[in-house]
Design a protein that fits this description.
Layout lengths: L5 E5 L4 H12 L5 E8 L6 H10 L4 E6 L1 H14 L15 H16 L3 E3 L8 H12 L4 E3 L1 H4 L4 H10 L13 E5 L2 E5 L29 E8 L2 E5 L2 E2 L2 H14 L4 E7 L5 E7 L1 H17 L2 H19 L6 H13 L5 E8 L2 E8 L7 H4 L11 H21 L1
Parallel strand pairs: 1-2, 1-4, 2-3, 4-5
Antiparallel strand pairs: 6-7, 7-12, 8-9, 8-13, 9-10, 11-12, 13-14
Helix pairs in contact: 1-7, 4-5, 8-9, 10-11
Bound molecules: arginine.
Arginine binds next to strand 6 and strand 7.
Length: 400
């Protein structure tokens, strides 16, 4: 008896997931492997990847176009949540995992598989995100993670694959571990493992080096409708197109790079390089529009919700009850987050320089220092008396 009869494997076309195919069949007695390659706008040609899996011996090689769903149902809610893990990482990799897990579970259901599989190692967050998401969506499915158990290094993995008849074109292998989708790229390992080493320009693909950015700033007006980005420079644009265009615009100004030491769920600190141009600009702009359209107490309370939300998403709890409850809170707050934000992109900086909304709670008549002022200054006196009363009583006790 093998570990499973029929398995749907998340497939990227890389060495690890390709070696998973013979490994599952030969070592773990799986009869039938079906691969599923997810299109998340990473820019890879999916047909050659599909063929590669067939060559490696799978019965069925699936490609799922998930880009639109990824942006609408995973990235956009995260923008509404202003989600930044440890205040910096916009979760571009983390957001893709629950969607890939959902596609795996659905394919398993469709093809009558008793297990799903992924190529994650035992050191990262992604294994947690897959396993927990799958458990949430179908607690009866087995999850197989060959690379977590096989204990082979890079060379051994390739040798194992070659022994089973796989061919790996001799291209100079990159020292980096890279994950990519339409939202951004995560780059780790190789020379980056020394936290003091500056990343070489070769690691970046979506963002220009400051040295090569234009010498004139560029303004972009981003329109939001109930917290969702819907317009660029006055034009209505669909979700995928909006991210694509904004990635290009922000990227050419060198906006969107992050270099951080991050705390993984499995207890390891890791040095991470990210580029996520559109996502970072959108979070900045969205947060700004909230400051114009939400009341003070909602704005401030939401900050705490956002931090919890970001941690849950990072830690693989996308489909958890707490995350769903926070979603409901966040959705409720977005009702009036409609308007435009103007950002200025220049030499690696994104600065909000204007915002406007028909639903703005900002009132110039109340805020102004000019003679048009409508604020009742005398009302402040009684307010301050009551506001400061507990502190006054406390101080009097001390001083007699
Ligand atoms: N540290 C990031 C995260 O946990 C990126 C992970 C990148 N994954 C990868 N397979 N290289 O979301």
């Amino acid at each position: 008896m093998g570990r499973a009869e029929k398995v749907v494997l998340a497939y990227s076309g890389g060495v690890d997931t390709t070696v998973c195919i013979p490994y599952l069949m030969n070592e773990w007695g799986v009869k039938d492997v079906i691969t599923l390659a997810a299109d998340l706008g990473q820019g890879d040609e999916l047909e050659p990847i599909r063929q590669k899996a067939l060559k490696a011996g799978v019965k069925e090689s699936l490609v799922a176009d998930l880009t639109e769903e990824f942006i609408k149902d995973y990235a956009f809610p995260a923008i509404q949540a202003n989600a930044l893990y440890e205040n910096r990482y916009p979760l571009s990799t983390a957001l893709a995992r629950p969607l890939i897990a959902k596609a795996l579970v659905e394919a398993a259901d469709r093809y009558g598989a008793d297990a799903v599989a992924h190529g994650c190692t035992g050191k990262g967050n992604d294994q947690v995100r897959f396993d927990v998401a799958i458990a949430a969506l179908n607690p009866n499915l087995k999850v197989l993670a060959p690379a977590r158990e096989w204990g082979m290094g890079r060379e051994e993995t390739i040798a194992y694959g070659e022994k089973t008849g796989l061919e790996f074109p001799v291209k100079k292998s990159s020292p980096y571990s890279i994950d990519r989708n339409l939202l951004g790229r995560s780059i780790e390992a190789g020379p980056l493992e020394d936290p003091m080493t500056e990343p070489l320009e070769e690691v970046f693909l979506m963002t220009e080096a400051i040295e090569n950015t234009p010498d004139a700033p560029e303004y972009v007006e981003i329109g939001f409708t109930q917290g969702l980005p819907t317009h660029l420079n006055g034009q209505a644009v669909g979700p995928v197109e909006l991210i694509t265009q904004l990635n290009a615009i922000a990227g050419r100004h060198g906006v969107g790079r992050i270099d951080m030491i991050e705390n993984r769920l499995v207890g390891i600190k890791s040095r991470e390089i990210y580029e996520a141009p559109a996502l970072l600009v959108l979070i900045d702009a969205h947060r700004d529009l909230e400051s114009l359209t939400l009341t003070a107490d909602v704005t401030q309370y939401k900050r705490g919700i956002e931090e919890t939300y970001s941690r849950l998403v990072y830690n693989g709890l996308w489909y958890s009850p707490l995350k769903l409850a926070l979603d409901a809170f966040i959705q409720q707050t977005q009702e009036r987050v409609t308007g435009i934000v103007r950002v200025k992109l220049f030499k690696g900086n994104c600065r909000v320089v204007g915002r406007q909304s028909d639903l703005a709670l900002y009132s110039e008549a109340l805020a102004t220092y000019s003679s048009d002022d409508q604020f009742d200054h005398r009302a402040a006196e009684g307010f301050i008396y009551v506001w400061g009363l507990p502190t006054r009583v406390w101080s009097e006790k001390l001083r007699g």
